[in-house]
Amino acid sequence: MTAAKLNIVPFVSVDHMMQLVLQIGVERALTEMASYIEEDFQRWELFDKTPRVASHSHDGVIELMPTSDGTLYGFKYVNGHPKNMRSGLQTVTAFGVLADVGSGYPMLLTEMTLLTALRTAATSAVAAKYLAPENPKTMAIIGNGAQAEFQALAFSALMGVETVQLYDIDPAASQKCRYNLAGTGLEIKMCASGQEAVEGADIITTVTADKQYATILTDNMVGAGVHINAVGGDCPGKTELHKDILLRSDIFVEYTPQTRIEGEIQQLDESHPVTELWQVMTGQVQGRKSPEQITLFDSVGFAIEDFSALRYIRDKLAGTGLYEELDLLADPDEPRDLFGMLLRKQQQMADGQ
């Protein structure tokens, strides 16, 4: 995909993103995006890294998530407003930009509400490749909102999960999830409690939305050998796991300074040891060490994952036509004559052009 002029920036709308993902295939998109994420985690030390810039309010949070590998720059704007669901709005919305570091010019502007759902699930499955017990077949998903189906399909595609056990405090959410996953080949079990959902599960995913210190998993619910994929706790004052679970687990994070603020480990002393996932992927640290080990991926989402997703979408757009051309950047014939460009437009308007 090449824009005809540098001032024209490709824009991927929600409709075009849906068409692109369906054209690729959801499970294939998750698998391919996971490869991009894994590739970028393996060159982690090249990236600029900073905790996301967050503006918190009583209602939610608005965040900017920037990073760069020295060649490309990416950022995402994203919000998290759990109360939105009560008024028919999305809890999370997002858009993002990929830019050329050399010129500073944007190369892509895209919706990232759908794309964030895909990259979150893909990241979860990538982490599980290194941390989950061998050959997992059963997965519990507690919290069956907008992210649940993506998690199920990612773990099916990348990890070979065959059975998904669903629980949500709102039975309608679980019914929605079961309906959406019909025909995927997954065996779906509806559960009446979180305890029932985790029984026999090799992997436990928690992905709830409420901004509060919650106890979605209690210590007695977690047996030896499981992998916990904790997705829902992603901002200060929002957790899902009882502290005792953390003390029994080997904890893996994306970027420690951010996760200390936002993740499950905000419940622990700052000296409590954690391992960054990139260290496992590069072979510096071992992930799962024994069948009895409890591993915990304390996932809060990090900018490099969004960078990977933006790279992936840019690469997949070539030849599809699934984007709009936005006249986004001022491009005067003489770079120093921006005001002259405005005057020429004034003359064109006067001439009725």
UniProtKB/TrEMBL annotation:
Pfam families: OCD_Mu_crystall (PF02423). InterPro entries: NAD(P)-bd_dom_sf, ODC_Mu_crystall, ODC_N. Gene3D superfamilies: NAD(P)-binding Rossmann-like Domain, ornithine cyclodeaminase, domain 1. Belongs to the ornithine cyclodeaminase/mu-crystallin family. This is Ornithine cyclodeaminase. It comes from Hohaiivirga grylli.
